[in-house]
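Sorry, any thoughts here?
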Amino acid sequence: MIKKHIKHAIVWCFFTITYKTVITQDPVAIIPQGRIVGIKVYAEGTLNPIEIFFGVPYAIPPVGRYRFAAPERHTGWRRSTFFANRMPPLCPQVGYDENNNISEDCLFLNIWTSRRADGKSLPVLVFFYSETWLDGGISLPCQNLAAEGVVVVTVSYRLHLLAFFTLKSSEARGNLALLDQYLALLWIRDNIAAFGGDPTSITLAGHSAGADSILYHLASPRSVGLFQRAIIMSPKNPWKILEDNYKYANVTEKTSREVAQIFGCEGKSDKEIVLCMRARPLSDIMTLYSNASWGPMLQPIPDDFLSESEQYLPTPLTVALSSKQSMQLDLLLGATDLESINYKDERIEELIKQSPSQIHEYTTAVVVPKLLQMLTIQRPEALSTLIQAIIWEYWGTMKKKDSERNSHEAIENLARVESAAVWGAGNALLAARLARRVSRLFVYRYSQSTKVDLRGRQLNYTGAIHGSDLLALLGDTLMLQVARRPTTNEEKQISALFQHYIIQFVKYGSPARDNEWIRYKVGDAQIHDIVYSRDNIRNKRSAARDISFWLQYLPQLANLLPTLERTEQLKSEKDENRLRGGVFAMCGVSVVLLALLIICVVLLRREQMHRSYAASEMHH
C-alpha cells in the first residue's frame, strides 16, 4: 500500500514539474523565416496564458535603396533565433523625432494568441491603426481581445513622406502605406497557422486612417481573398472618400516634387531625383514634417500610371466602391456620435477658451455653411433659413444662455451638428454603396459617454468622442496605458458589450442575433445604436433621425424655399394682378407648410419606432 502511494506521489510530482515547465517556458513559433521566441502574459479573469510576439519583421527594412520603394519580403534569420519580446519602434511620423522610439526600420507585426488545448485554429483579427496618414498615435495592447479566443495581429506601416512621396512613375510610385499593409496580409496568410490562427478566417479591422485603408483594400483587385470580413471604425471623413480622388493625384505629385526641390534633388530624370532623396538623412526629411499644409496632400492615389501588373489601385476609390461587382465579404461599419471631437484637433483646444456665445457664433457663421456646401446645398437665398432650421433641430427652442451654460456644452452642441452631418450622413451614403456589393453589412453608432480621450485627458461630454469605440474595444489595458487608471464599472460594462459584438463578428460574420441587430440593406437602412446606460438610450437622438434630417429634410427644404421666394415676389400694378399674386403666394405658403408637416410626421414616426425598439431592448 505504501509503495502504491509512493508511486502515485512520484507520478504527481512528475506531472506537476512537467506542467510547470510547459507553462513557464517561453512560447515558440517556427516559420520559414526562422524560429521565433515570444513572451507570455495573463489577461484579467483568464487562466490560460496569452502568447505575445512583438516586432516580427514582415519586410526588408525600407532603408537605403529600399526607401520610397515597394516593400519586399523579409528573407529571415535562418541561422539563429529571433527574440520577439519587446515592442518595436514606430515608423517616422508627426510628433516624434529621432530621440523617440522611431526608426525607418519599422515594418513589423505584433501578434497575440491564446492557443487552444485541442490544437484547433482560431479566427484572426488583423488591426490597422493610425490617426491620419501622417501619424500613427499609440501602440495598441490587444491581450484582452486575444483572451476571447482570437489571434490578434497589429501592423506597422510607413507614414507621411516616406509613404506617399510620388513622382507618378515606377521610380517613386507612392501608396507605400497600402503596399506595406498588403505585404503584411500576404505574410499573415502564409504564416499565421504557426501561431494558432486560421488563414481562411481573417477579419481586417481599422480605425481612423486605418479604416480608410480597409476601403482601399476593398477597392484593390489584388486584395481579393486575403480577408473574409472587415470592420471599419470611425473613417477619417466619409465624404472625402466619396470624392473623386483623381484630382488629388496631381497635387500629391506636385507636393512631392516641391519636397525634392527643397533638398536640391532636381535631376533630369525621376531616377536621379529618387537617388538624391534616398541619400538624405532621415533627420533632414523629418524637418519637413512640421509643415501642416502638406498633410491633406499626402494620401493614396490611383496608380494607373504603372503597368497593369504593378497596379494596386487602378481606379479611383469612389469608382471602385460604386462597382456592381459583388464581394463575398461580411462588413461592419460605424462611428461615434461626437466623432468631430478629436484628441488631435487643435481647434477644440482653442474653442474651449471661447465663451458659449462665441462658439455658437462660430457654429452658425463657419461650421454650418461649410456643412451645407459639403452637402451641395448651396443656395444663398435659402442659407439663413437653412441655418435656422439646423439650429432649431439641434438647439431646440431654448435660448443660447439657457442651453449653453459653459463652453464644453456649446462645443458638444457644435460636435453633434458636425458629427451628424459628416459621419452620420456620410457613413449612410457610404453604407448605401457597400450594401449593394458585400454579402452582409452591419452599421452602428457608438454613443456611450467616455470621460477620457486617447491622450488620457479628462472630459465632460455626454456622448462618445473620436476614439471612444477604440477604448471600449481594447478595454482596461488601453485605459491603463493612456489614462493610467483602470476602467470604471460602467466602462467595463460597455467595453464587454462592444467587445462581444466585435468578437461575434470576427467568429461568425454577425455581431449579434438577427432580432438584436438588424443588418443594413438597400431600402432598409438599419443603424444600431450602441449605448449601455438606459438613461442615455432615452436621452439620445437616434442615428436614423440625424440621417433623415441631413439627407432628406434639408435638401427638400432648400428646394422649396426658392419656389416660395419667387411666389412672394409676384407683383403687378393692377389690383387684380396684385390680388392674384397674393393668392399665388398663399398657395405657395400652403404647399411649403404641407410639405414640412408631412416631413415632420415621418420623422416623428421614425423616432417613435426607434424609441419602441430601444424600449424593447431594455425590456429584454
The chain has three domains: 27-186+239-322, 333-550, 553-619. Residues 575-619 form the longest helix (45 residues). The radius of gyration is 28 Å.
